[in-house]
Every structure is written in structure tokens, then in C-alpha cells.
Amino acid sequence: MEIFHLRYFVAVAENLSFSRAARQLHMATSPLSRRIRDLERELGRQLFDRDSHHVALTPAGAALLPAAKDVLGRFDDLPWRLRQALGAERRAAYVGVVPVLHPQLRERLARLETRCADGYDVKRWPGNSANLVAAVQRGDLAMALVHLPVHAEGIEVLELLHEPLGALLPGAEFGGRSSVSLNELTDHTYVTSAPGTLPTYFDQLKVRLKAAGIHREITLDIGDYASVREIVANGSVFGITLLSAGSRGEGKDTSIVLPFRDFSPALATGLVWRRDRARPDGDLHALISTAEAVFAAPLDPCEDASAGASRPTPADSPDPPPPGSDSRPPRGLY
Asked: Residue 106: CA atoms inside 13 Å, Cβ hemisphere, count?
């Protein structure tokens, strides 16, 4: 039995789906299934009840899961526990950053880098929220600025900012308007970029749109957010983006962003870290305490609106690095 057998088992157990677990692990489904069968043969127990439509833990699998997670946690903790034992020195601390981040939060992050310069070399690591939270759990990242909600074992969440969202609409059809209601969009098609390129909050938005009678949807096959604006400018479709994104384009290619009259969506951003590493005896206690102090002051999402209009948004920001080994910070660093 190797450590990767346990990592594969936990991924399948948490997803209750071999295909979803394979995507999370950045591998094909068939080798994942073979590794699970290898583990079952070695343990002499069936860990999953599975057929073509259903995956469930057996009693043996349910008993193994907490022990496997404990072993993985201890294994992943070895690098920073070693550093803790060797004593203090100026250490690299990687902070995850989503591409859609308010300028005030970037300013606070720069302030943290300055205040911690004597003890930490704070570096930024880009990615989407799900991958960044997983990296914090593994110990690859010290902390991360991500879009909420986040529900992850052992993770502390400090909510920082709610940014209002609006409807991204064709300027030719909605130009001159100050707002729009959901019932005006029931004949339009909702368009989003490729799966995995938007915060998970947008999954909740889809449910709300369907409840309002908006059932037509287009999901692009590419992660180019700017393509959403181009399609919207053609007419008969709409997207959802930050209200501060403003108008883009000229003439018939114009797209505009309007607030909803009957709907108040907002994108929440927070700072996340591992709870055990922030304790007084944790290796990142000083860094995380300083980060809490730096980010504690109230933030105004309407401030720096001009900067916000030119920054990346869910409709046109660059795609985060693709998942895989190259998207992880170097092992052995914070």
C-alpha cells in the first residue's frame, strides 16, 4: 500500500463518484478504478458499492475514511512540522489569489507583505477557489483569498467583502436603462464560461434563474471570459458579472452591466487558512494573526470603482492556471 492509494480512496469517498474524483486528481477514471481495486485486494475488504449509476461507501470504507484522512493529514504536514522543529528563519509563505479580486484586497495583501517582510517572504499563487482551498488544506499554501462559500474540514474563513453583481446585457437592446428585472430576461439565454472558471456561487445563481423562469442556458467550451461579452453583444443572451464592470465596446458590439430590480446577488470574498496552523503553537501563528489584523478593517466594495472597472471580472478575466502539477506551488514551501 502506498500513500497515493489512500489519497485516491479519500477522493472517491468524498465525491462518491469515480469520474468527479478523477477530475479532482487530474487523472483518467480507469486507472483510478484500478488503484481502488488494488487497495481493496490488499485490505481484503470491499470499500465501495458501485454500479454504473451509484457509488456508496461500504461499512469497511466508512471505517477506513477517517483513518485514511488522518494519515494523509500527518503525511502532508511533514514539511512544515520539520521547518517548525528546525527553528525560525525568513520563510517563503505562498498566499493563493483568485483572478477576480477587488483592488482593496490586493492593496491589503501588499500591506501584509510589507508588515511580515522580516519573518516571511510572502508570495502570491493564482488559481480558482476550489484548487486554492485544497492547497491550503494540504499545507501547500499558507492561506488564500477565495470566493465564498467555503465549507472545508479544518479551514477557518474570514469573510471580507461582498461585491454586488449585475446583468451583463447587449447595449443595443438595453442601452439607456438603469436596471433590469429577471422577468424581462425569460426570453433570453443565460451564458457562462467553461465549467471550473467561475466561483461556485454561480451554481446557486443558476438555481435562482431557473426559479424565475429562465431555462435556456449556454455553457462555453473555453475558459475565455471575454467570449461571454462578445456573445452578449450579439443580443438575445445575458450573463452575470460584477456590477462595477461597466460598459465595454462600441456601436453594435456594446455590452452593459445593469443592477437587478428584483434580485440582489453579491460575490463574497474571504481569507481562508488551516485552523491548526493559526494556533499559538502553530507554525503560521504570527503570519495569520498579522493577516487578520491587516484585513480586519471594513472594506467598501464601491471604493476604487474606477480601478474595479478595469480589473478582471467573471465575464472577462483571464483563465487561472490549468489544474495539474504545474498549478501547485513548489512542495516544501508555505
From this structure: 13
List helix spans (H) across the chain: 3-15, 18-25, 29-43, 59-86, 103-115, 129-138, 171-174, 201-211, 226-233, 275-278, 285-295, 305-310
**Dihedral (C-alpha) 101, 103, 109, 112: value to the nearest 10 degrees?**
-160
Residue 2: pLDDT above 90?
no
Is the model more confident about 327 or about 227?
A: 227
β-partners of residue 304 are none
Whether residue 122 contacts residue 316, with contact meaning beta carbons closer than 8 Å, is answered with no
Q: What is the dihedral of CA 138, 140, 141, 146, to 10 degrees?
A: -50
216 CB contacts (<8 Å, ≥6 apart)? 188, 189, 190
For cell 517582510, the residue is 117
What is the C-alpha separation between 307 and 263, in angstroms, rounded? Answer: 25
- Cβ neighbours of residue 302 closer than 8 Å, sequence gap 6 or more: 244
**CB contact burial 221-248 (16+ within 10 A = b; e otherwise):** eebbbebbbebbbeeebbbbbbbbbbeb
Q: Is the pTM of this model over 0.70?
A: no
Strands 266-274 and 155-170: antiparallel
Q: How many CB atoms lie within 10 A of CB 166?
A: 22
